[in-house]
Amino acid sequence: MRDFSAIQNETYDLIVIGGGVNGAAAARDAAMRGLKTILIEKNDFASGSSSWSTRLVHGGLRYLEYFEFPLVRESLRERELLLRNAPHLVKPLMLTVPVYGERSRPYWKIWAGMILYDIFSYDKTVPLHRMLQKQAFEQLFRALDTDQLKGGAQYYDAQAEYAERLCLENIFDARAHGATVLNYVEVTSLGREGERLSQLECRDRLTDTPFTLNSLDQTVIVNTAGPWVDRVLAQGQPQAISKTRKIGGTKGSHILVDRFAGMPDTALYVEAKTDGRPFFILPFLGKVLIGTTDLPFTGDLDCLKADNAEIDYLLTETNHIITTANLTRADVKFTYSGVRPLPYAEGKKPSELTRSHILYDHQSEGVQNLVSLIGGKLTTYRHVGEELVDWAFKRLNRTAPPCPTLKTALPGCILPTDARIKAAVNHYRHWVSAETVLHLFTLYGAQAGEVLALLESDPDLAAPIVPALPDIRAQIVYAVRAELAHTFLDITRRRTTIAIQADYGFPALPALRETLQRYCGWDDERCDRNTAEYTAYMHRNCVPDYARVETSAAVVQPV
Q: Which residues contact 238 (CB under 8 A, 6 or more apart)?
């Protein structure tokens, strides 16, 4: 149980509102630099935009076209830092760019972009780009569309397949350094006295318990709520904060399909044949991730779904590029949508909105102790956190110590060659397969040993959650006991990726129920409620509108 009486009697230096990857980075950095920090998230950590990205850690090749050179350099530097500080979660990824005639950027322009990309990533450890003439490209990629083909390019960025874990490791490291981190806590009111926010009224959504953070005379607040930034600001009492719109987010949707005929081993960065929009076709968890769209969005942020038109667009354009794909709606195994928290700009197209982040200091509105983050992306999250904490120290009139996150690895940091992995494979071979051990070290990094240690006291926890995946029941127990998971969805969607990989996670529900009742004290009422909420969420946000789910059989079937 969380002690809210103690929490509301504490005096904090920094309050972070929003537990996505940027808020997590700010909390971690602040705690490591000695600030008394509390982070508040209204849902689960990483449950918003951080969970719905394309999962690329990249410099933003197309940002060069809009002359956002500082953003490209910042992104490429941060990509390199993540490859070094989180090698278990962030791994090099080669991308191939086919170049076509009138429907594509010219060959020379792609070549020039590749040269600039290499220049801006002068400190990288991944290989340089290479250009492919038409004949060589056709030999390597025989299933790709050859209509107006001029050749192609190949270059390296990086991928974070488990993007949620990247956020979570920042959360847990912030906690390890003394920060208070609360999921399922919502800010319900912002009180103001003079030029400062003086009070935050909050509500624990798990127990419906209200509490208040008072005495904010020496406290600064950072609003990292992503697409919900304006909603947080709207909680201000009358005249507390300007209601001027800050976020003009765009919706991005993805679909997941099984590997198909003609899908190359490399990732593809392509331009749609019908409208020239760039999108990705990526290897992902043994399947193929396709996305994303880029549409203006003004709807309900809590009810996001890839609509039928978006799904059809991604299927059609993939079939145009990979001529042997022949994908249909029946091939879609999972969908997800998110909103990019981009700055609001009247009359601009989504592609014209800057991808650079903005620290909106509310001092311009007469509030001295509040800043809101507008924008931000997965790749640059660490640097965003650093900037927010630097701002906090400045507003607290304190000298900021050097930023520690530049050189401090995430707690799970481990290389595939580490002797601990081989030792764990040998030690636990009587309980689980080598595949499962390697999977756990990929997911949890150096902390996989804590999950495996649960088998010592109860070997039954070595049982799989679903037969087709390497995840085991010990992960369910670990998620609740050590990783602040409170719901079925927390476990299948963010502590693991079972929801994405196994029929929206429905086959995992019996194992979740049995394990949580046996080891974590959950009763029938709590499990029934979680089952209902989980099913409703998947129908509302992930299962395509054209499909129906037979939850009793845990099978997704097209209508």
A: none
What CA–CA distances, in Å, run from 512 to 355, 473, 516? 39, 8, 6
Nearest CA to 84 among 126, 129, 21, 23?
Answer: 126
The DSSP output letter for 383 is H
Beta strands 91-100 and 56-57 are unpaired
- Give residue 100's domain range: 58-76+90-156
Structure tokens at 115: 């040269």
- The structure tokens listed for 292 are 């994303």
Distance (Å, whole) CA 386 – CA 401: 11
- Alpha-carbon gap, residue 236 to 514, rounded angstroms: 43
Q: Would you say residue 258 lies in a domain?
A: yes
Q: Which of 441, 442, 439, 463 is nearest to 450 (CA)?
A: 441
C-alpha angle 18-21-25 in degrees, rounded to nearest 5: 90
319's CB contacts (< 8 A; 6+ apart) are 325, 326, 327
Total structural domains within the chain: 4
Q: Which tokens hold the place of 110?
A: 């792609």
How far apart are alpha carbons 238 and 105 in whole angstroms?
50
d(CA 310, CA 306): 6
Q: Tokens 């769209």 — which residue? A: 293
Asked if residue 137 and residue 148 are part of one domain, the reply reads yes
The answer to whether the CB of 375 falls within 8 A of the CB of 345 is no
Lookup: tokens for 251: 């919706």
Structure tokens of 505?
A: 């996670």
Structure token pair of residue 533: 């909420």
Give, for all 559 residues of the chain, the pLDDT tens digit: 789 999 999 999 999 999 999 999 999 999 999 999 999 999 999 999 999 999 999 998 888 887 889 999 999 999 999 999 999 999 999 999 999 998 878 899 999 999 999 999 999 999 999 999 999 999 999 999 999 999 999 999 999 999 999 999 999 999 999 999 999 999 999 999 999 999 999 999 999 999 999 989 999 999 999 999 999 999 876 667 877 889 988 999 999 999 999 999 999 999 999 999 999 999 999 999 999 999 988 888 988 999 999 999 999 999 999 999 999 999 999 999 999 998 887 766 666 667 789 999 999 999 999 999 999 999 999 999 999 999 999 999 999 999 999 999 999 999 999 999 999 999 999 999 999 999 999 999 999 999 999 999 999 999 999 999 999 999 999 999 999 999 999 999 999 999 999 999 999 999 999 999 999 999 999 999 999 999 999 999 999 999 864 444 444 443 3
Write a three-state SS string for 186-241: EEEEEEEECCEEEEEEEEECCCCEEEEECCCCCCEEEECCHHHHHHHHCCECCCCC
Same domain as 168, residue 140:
no
Q: 333 with 453, same domain?
A: no
In angstroms, the Cα distances linking 194 to 8, 202, 235, 243 are 22, 21, 17, 17
Can you tell me the distance from the alpha carbon of 427 to that of 419, in angstroms, rounded to the nearest whole number? 12
Q: Are residues 518 and 383 in the same domain?
A: no
